[in-house]
Specification:
Length: about 270
């Protein structure tokens, strides 16, 4: 941090035989952690309060003005179900995040066939993609490719990335997932496997890229909420990739689309 951002604790105590002892303690990091924690709690509270306020409002309307109106009742119940769904997804993502954080130092022990895992993830998301008019293609996943990993967590990584590509990059009509071995990845300094999720949608402005994996960071909050997003997907992805000692790279060009690349160490 720059000098202006540093926080020091200074204590002055009388020294034996006169004079004073002055001690300086750099508490910048503690202060930053405290600030991050406070921001996180404020964000979570805000995200929960929004659907709760909507739910309470509709309950009141159903109890009063819309009491005897079956058409309005149906419409309000549908909105309430959507808001309750939003809260459920938020709580689920918060739990995933805290679980991944708690396990971040433990190396995953399972063996996973990445080709099979990707083909399963794409099959699960095909109905969502079809509904959005997007074609999903898997390139290079013909042979099984085993790595040491946590299958559920990696499924979550690729599910989040492909779902985002469909949700935000769907105007490009095609999302490609490419699986490839890399002999030596510069980030890993060794052999790895690379999974690239590429969309041809509207792309992301360069100023947003460094902050995209922060919790609750969204390029367009209104759009994310309308799509049912929690703003935690990429934060979860980043933590899972870190736990697997991998790397996440995000490249994007306005008007051309985005590419999210995950490189994981082989053995
Ligand atoms: P959300 O729940 O909002 O989707 P994420 O953490 O998954 O949260 O993503 C954070 C933000 O990054 C999204 O709100 C969106 O603005 C942007 N984003 C993610 N993936 C893409 C993509 N493929 N194309 C364009 N924008 C994206």
């Amino acid at each position: 941090p720059s000098v202006a951002e540093q926080v020091w604790r200074v204590t002055v105590a009388p020294a034996p035989g006169g004079g004073a002892i002055c001690s300086f303690l750099d508490i910048t990091e503690q202060e930053l952690i405290g600030q991050l924690r406070r921001d996180f709690v404020a964000n979570v509270s805000h995200e929960l309060r929004t659907p709760l306020t909507a739910l309470l409002g509709f309950i009141e309307t159903l109890q009063t003005t819309a009491k005897d109106d079956p058409v309005a009742r149906e419409r309000f119940l549908a909105i309430m179900a959507r808001e309750a769904g939003r809260m459920t997804r938020l709580v689920k993502d918060l739990l995933s995040l805290s679980r991944v954080e708690a396990e971040e130092r433990q190396r995953p022990a399972g063996s996973v066939d990445l080709a099979g895992l990707l083909s399963g993830t794409l099959s699960a998301l095909r109905p969502v993609a079809e509904a959005a008019g997007v074609e999903l293609e898997l390139l290079g996943g013909a042979e099984p490719l085993a790595i040491r990993a946590d299958a559920d967590q990696l499924t979550q990584v690729f599910h989040n990335l492909v779902e985002n590509a469909v949700k935000y990059g769907g105007s490009g009509k095609r999302v490609s997932v490419r699986l490839e071995r890399v002999a030596v990845d510069p980030g890993l300094r060794g052999p790895g496997v690379m999974v690239q999720v590429q969309d041809r949608g509207e792309g992301i402005d360069a100023i947003h890229l460094p902050r995209l994996t922060e919790r609750f960071y969204r390029v367009d909050a209104h759009r994310s909420r309308a799509q049912g997003g929690t703003g935690l997907g990429l934060a979860i992805v980043k933590h899972i990739v870190n736990r697997h000692r991998g790397r996440l790279r995000i490249e994007s060009e306005k008007g051309k689309g985005s590419t999210f690349t995950v490189v994981l160490p082989l053995a």
